[in-house]
What does this fold into?
Amino acid sequence: RLSQGDRKIVVAVIDTGADIRHKDLQSNLWTNSGEVGSDKMGRDKSSNGVDDDNNGVIDDVHGWNFVGNN
It folds into this structure.
């Protein structure tokens, strides 16, 4: 049985990788709201090299890749 799921449910996958550009995943990925938008200097928070949400991880927009440390 195929299910479209529920946006209230967050699922974490420990794996060797996921293609975040995949058409089935792209619009359904969790997004860290503290790491999107612009910072006070006008830079993109998703790639500014700063831990904008102060959680100890830099630019963790869709989680963290512990293998690649990015």
